[in-house]
Specification:
Elements (H helix, E strand, L loop, with lengths): L1 E9 L5 E10 L4 E6 L5 H8 L7 E6 L2 E2 L5 H6 L1 E5 L10 H5 L1 H5 L4 H14 L4 H4 L9 H13 L5 E5 L7 H12 L8 E6 L2 H7 L2 E6 L2 E6 L1 H6 L4 H6 L4 H8 L19 E2 L4 H11 L2 E4 L4 E4 L1 H15 L1
Parallel strand pairs: 3-8, 3-9, 6-7, 7-8, 11-12
Antiparallel strand pairs: 1-2, 1-4, 4-5, 9-10, 12-13
Bound molecules: adenosine-5'-triphosphate.
C-alpha cells in the first residue's frame, strides 16, 4: 500500500511544483498519474522512492514513513521502471535481471529459476536472449527486460515512469496488454506515470489527474469521464471522449440494456470493457457475453445502443 498525505515539493528557486497531493493506492491496484507536461507527475513518483524528498507532507509505503528508512533499504522493496529502461549496457540480460536478487543474497538456483519464469511471462525466449547485451535487443525487448528486472525480487511496490513511452504505438499497445495481464500484479501496489490518456484508461484502477502540481481529481476512469470534478477534467478528455467512454465502461454497467438468450460458449464477461466488446463485434459480427445473472448476444448496434441508453440515464 502507498499513501500520500498532503505532499508538497518546492525546489531551490522556491517554485512549488507539487502542491498538497494526497491519495492512497492499495495492493492489487494501479494508480495512474496523468497530466500535462510539467504537472509534477515524475516529481511525485520520485518522492516515493526518495530520489527526492518532499518539502512537506508524509509518504507511507506499507504503513511505514519513507523518510524513516534508508533509501537503499526502501528501494529494495520497490521495483522501478523507466522510459529508457535503465539497463546496464555491459551486463547481459540475465545479469541485469539478477541485480536485486544478487544484492539480496539469493542463491544461484533461485535466481536462475526466477529469471526463467519472468522471461517466459514476458515473452522473451531464454535460449535466445539470456546471454545477450541490451544493445542487441529491440526497444520492446529491452523494455520487457527492464520490467523483468523490476519484478525480479518480487517487490510489493512497482513505480513506473512512462514505461512504454519510448516504444512505437503497435509495440506499446501489445506490451501494455501483456503487462495488464501479468498475474504478478495482483499482489502489488503499482503507480504509473504517463501523459497518454488511453494508457491511463487501459491500465488504471484509479487515475490521479494533475495540472500545475495540483491534483484536479482522483477517481476511477469512469468517474473522471462521467462525473468530472471541474472544467479542466472535463476538457482534458474531450478530444477522445467516445473512445475513452468505451474503454472505461464495463459491459456489466450496461447489461440491463442487453438481451437475454440461452446461447452458450460466451467469449466475454461483464468485466470486459465495451471497447473490448466492440473490437470483437467488429471482427465476428455477433459475440456472446456471460453475466452473473444472464447471457447476452450482442452486435455492434446493440452495444452502441446500450451505451447510448446508459449515457442518457446519466443526463
Ligand atoms: N531538480 C529540479 N530542480 C528544479 N525544478 C525541477 C526539478 N525537477 C523538476 N523540476 C520542475 O518541476 C516541474 C514538474 O516536473 P515533473 O518532471 O515532475 O513534471 P511531469 O509532470 O513529470 O512532466 P513530464 O510529463 O514532462 O515529464 C517542472 O516545472 C520541472 O521543471
Amino acid at each position: 500500500m502507498i499513501q500520500l498525505d498532503n505532499v508538497s515539493k518546492s525546489f531551490g528557486s522556491g517554485k512549488t511544483v507539487v502542491s498538497n497531493v494526497s491519495f492512497t493506492v492499495n495492493e492489487g491496484e494501479i494508480m495512474v498519474l496523468l497530466g500535462t507536461s510539467g504537472s509534477g507527475k515524475t516529481t511525485t513518483l520520485r518522492m516515493i522512492n526518495r530520489l527526492t524528498d518532499p518539502s512537506s507532507g508524509s509518504i507511507y509505503v506499507n504503513g511505514t514513513s519513507v523518510t524513516t528508512q534508508q533509501p537503499e533499504t526502501l528501494r529494495r522493496g520497490i521495483g522501478y521502471v523507466l522510459q529508457n529502461n535503465g539497463l546496464f549496457p555491459h551486463y547481459t540480460v540475465a545479469e541485469n535481471i539478477a541485480i536485486v536478487p544478487e544484492l539480496s543474497n539469493w542463491d544461484k538456483k533461485r535466481i536462475t529459476d526466477r529469471t526463467a519464469v519472468l522471461m517466459e511471462k514476458l515473452h522473451l525466449a531464454a535460449d535466445e536472449y539470456l546471454h545477450v547485451y541490451p544493445h542487441q535487443l529491440s526497444g520492446g525487448q529491452q523494455q520487457r527486460v527492464g520490467l523483468a528486472r523490476a519484478l525480479a525480487a518480487d517487490p510489493p511496490v512497482l513505480l513506473m515512469d512512462e514505461p512504454f513511452g519510448a516504444l512505437d504505438p503497435v509495440t506499446r499497445a501489445s506490451i501494455r496488454k501483456e503487462f495488464r495481464n501479468l498475474d504478478e500484479l495482483r499482489s502489488k501496489t503499482v503507480i504509473i506515470v504517463t501523459h497518454d490518456v488511453q494508457e491511463a484508461f487501459e491500465l488504471g484502477t484509479y487515475i490521479c489527474l494533475m495540472d500545475k502540481g495540483i491534483v484536479q481529481q482522483v477517481g476511477t476512469p469512469a468517474e473522471l469521464l462521467f462525473s468530472p470534478a471541474n472544467d479542466f477534467v472535463h476538457a482534458f478528455f474531450e478530444e477522445q471522449r467516445l473512445l475513452l467512454e468505451l474503454k472505461a465502461l464495463k459491459l456489466t454497467t450496461i447489461r440491463q440494456w442487453l438481451n437475454n438468450t440461452t446461447h452458450e460458449n460466451a467469449t466475454l464477461n461483464g468485466n470486459n470493457s465495451c471497447w473490448e466488446a466492440l473490437e470483437q463485434t467488429t471482427e465476428h459480427d455477433i459475440v456472446t457475453v456471460q453475466f452473473e445473472d444472464k447471457i447476452s448476444t450482442i452486435n455492434t448496434n446493440a452495444l452502441m445502443d446500450a451505451v447510448k441508453q446508459y449515457k442518457h440515464g446519466l443526463l
